[in-house]
C-alpha cells in the first residue's frame, strides 16, 4: 500500500516515539508499504515547531533526517481535483491533491477536516484505524 502521512501524525511521531501516531508511522514506512509526504507537510512541521516547540527544533531535524531514508516526497499538482470540494479546510486540499496524484491508497491523519470529508479514495484513516489494517 502507498500511504501519505499527514503533518499532525508526523509531528506527533517526532515528539513521542511511544504513541499510536509513531506506531502508525513505523507501519507506513515498513515494507511492503510505501510512505509518502509532500513539501507542505515539511513546511507545516517546521512552522508548528517554530511556533509551539522552539526548544525541540533539533529533535524535529533529526526526525526529518532519519525519515527521509524511508519517505518519498511527492509533488503537489497545480490542477485542482474535483474531490477537494469535500474537504472543508482549503489548506488541507493540497495534501489530498498530492495523495491522489501519488496514487496513495490511504492518508493517515488526525485532521477532522480530512477525516470527515467522506472520501472513498484515498481512504482517510486515523493512526489507530490504520494500525488495525492487516
CATH fold annotation: Rossmann fold
The counted number of beta strands is 5
Distance between the ends: 11 Å
> What does the main sheet amount to?
5 strands, parallel
The sequence of SSEs as H and E is EHHEHHEHEHEH
At the first level of CATH, the class is Alpha Beta
Rounded to the nearest angstrom, the radius of gyration is 14 Å
What does this structure look like?
This protein has 134 residues and is an alpha/beta fold. It has a single domain, classed as 3-Layer(aba) Sandwich (Rossmann fold), CATH 3.40.50. Helix content is 47%, strand content 14%. The chain contains seven helices and five strands, in the order βααβααβαβαβα. It has helices at residues 7-15, 20-29, 39-52, 57-67, 93-101, 112-115, 127-132; strands at 2-5, 34-38, 71-74, 106-108, 123-125. Strands 3-2-1-4-5 form a five-stranded parallel beta sheet, sandwiched between helices. It starts with a strand and ends with a helix.
Amino acid at each position: 500500500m502507498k500511504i501519505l502521512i499527514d503533518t499532525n501524525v508526523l509531528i506527533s511521531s517526532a515528539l513521542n516515539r511511544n504513541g499510536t501516531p509513531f506506531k502508525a508511522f513505523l507501519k507506513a514506512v515498513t515494507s511492503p508499504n510505501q510512505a509518502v509526504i509532500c513539501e507542505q507537510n515539511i513546511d507545516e512541521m517546521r512552522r508548528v515547531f517554530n511556533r509551539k516547540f522552539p526548544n525541540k527544533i533539533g529533535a524535529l531535524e533529526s526526525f526529518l533526517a532519519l525519515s527521509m531514508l524511508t519517505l518519498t516526497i511527492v509533488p503537489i499538482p497545480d490542477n485542482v481535483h474535483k474531490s477537494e470540494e469535500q474537504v472543508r479546510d482549503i489548506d488541507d486540499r493540497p495534501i489530498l491533491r498530492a495523495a491522489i496524484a501519488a496514487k496513495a491508497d490511504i492518508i493517515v491523519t488526525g485532521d477532522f477536516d480530512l477525516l470527515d470529508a467522506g472520501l472513498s479514495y484515498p481512504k482517510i484513516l486515523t493512526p489507530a484505524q490504520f494500525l488495525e489494517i492487516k
